[in-house]
Amino acid sequence: MAPKKKMFEHKRKLVTRLNPKSPISEQYRTIRTNIQFSSVDKEIRTLVVTSSGPTEGKSTTVANLAVVFAQQGKSVLLIDADLRKPTAHYTFNLTNTFGLTTVLTKQMELRDAAVKTEEKNLFILTSGPIPPNPAELLGSKAMEEFMETVKEEFDIILFDTPPLLTVTDAQVLANRSDGTILVVSSGRTETDAAVKAKEALTSVNATILGVVLNNKKVKEGQYYYYYGGK
After folding, report:
1. Closest CA to 205 of 180, 183, 169, 168
2. How confident is the model at residue 18 (pLDDT cuts 50, 70, 90)?
3. Which end of the chain, N or C, is less surrounded by CB atoms within 10 Å?
4. Quick one: which H or E segment has residue 51?
5. In the predicted model, is pLDDT for residue 61 greater than 90?
6. pLDDT for residue 39
7. Would the pLDDT of 226 be above 70?
8. pTM higher than 0.85 for the full model?
9. Given this model, what pLDDT does residue 103 score?
10. 52, 24 Cβ separation under 8 angstroms
């Protein structure tokens, strides 16, 4: 696939930016509201979005959630923590020569690596160069310190992570975050896989806020995004 075509296909999924009045954009705002009311005792500021397997829509979901949080006036940082197959730079038409990995390895400061987008209040931290040890890097002391730093700079921090059933990266971050959203795809995600994904999160004491069901066709050409509490 040519890079230009791939970039277009990713960018057109940013429906909350390109068509904020669409029914799908309204569903993302509903998910945003449900997240905000999911915990009365603890404010949700760091949020992991993951899935059981690939191509279930987690990256599209987290990108659009980042946009609707920013549209609410929140200072938002979307971090591409998928250090194996990152996609945020395609979605937002950015380069990926620096990012999370360069910040964690002290080659660059967060303020220089985070890129302001066309959406007011929204910043993106791409993955940066893919490291040989993603899980170890995400579980490092440097990552722990990084998470404290970003909470001082931003209201909402969202992490796009690899699928749960392929590597342990998402579990590592879910354990350190305020909440986790599991994305499943109608007609694609198998029930056993979804159950195993939930168990993987439970095993690391992750706070599961709910499940987003996407690609559920209701009419030709329309898709319904459903948020279900845990």
Report:
1. 180
2. confident
3. N
4. strand 46-51
5. yes
6. 73
7. no
8. yes
9. 98
10. no
**Residue 67 tokens, joined:** 């946009």
State the residue for tokens 């993987």: 200
In this structure, are residues 214 and 185 in contact, taking their beta carbons and an 8 Å threshold? Answer: yes
Among all chains, which residue has been given the structure tokens 């931290």?
125
Q: Which two tokens stand for residue 40?
A: 């009365």
Residue 1 confidence (pLDDT)? 39
Where do runs of H (alpha helix) occur along the chain? 3-11, 15-18, 23-36, 58-71, 88-91, 100-104, 110-113, 134-138, 141-153, 169-176, 191-203
Residue 59's SS3 state is helix
Q: What confidence category does residue 218 fall into, taking pLDDT thresholds of 50, 70 and 90?
A: low
Judge contact between 212 and 226, C-beta under 8 A: yes
Burial class (CB in 10 A: 0-12, 13-18, 19+), 81: buried
Residue with tokens 């938002």: 76
